[in-house]
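Next up, sample data.

:::
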Amino acid sequence: MTEPRRFEPQVQVSASSYRDRLSITSFINANYQIRDCLQFNPRRVLIIGTGLGLEASILRGFGLDVTVVDIDPALSPDVVASVDNLSMFENKSFDVVIAAHVLEHLPYEFLDRCCAEISRVAEHALIYLPFACWVPQVTIAIEPLFRKTVRLRIPLFWKTHRFNGEHYWEIGTKGCSLQRVTESLKKHFDINDAYHNWDWRYSYNFVLDSTSHA
């Protein structure tokens, strides 16, 4: 039996504020989601979190059946719900479920519940999460003959992340290592791929296969 909630998910960003969030990173993040999603040749896709609506619009343009879930009715999602309770959907209803920069909006103790629900309704999942880190970079180039970039990722492991009005936790901060998050995901998924998005270094992206047999 699922433990009762000791926390009620709340809307953190007003619908009107999304107009002010349009930036190049919005398109970068959408590009990666679409690329990772299409590799599975899906027919039915669930997007958790309306955001700016870029991903849903583009995937529908590919002819896919896309359902959008959001906790905020003001964003006009197809279904109003929280990611930790997708009981309105049957098991394995979707080929791919996308939760890009969503799960950190709930306390970390909700991660297991959220992953269990995503794994239950999905064959595959894309879970993108924030990574707090420094990335020193050196590029050596002799154009057009040679170009080499060396990057060093330094997690902010000494920094305690505190709720900032939106994020309850971020990978790389004290007590929230990449290893810990990876092990949490492995309870419900096989990791198909996991990579740092070097085009938007704040994002660490997991491409997952569900292990739920519910």
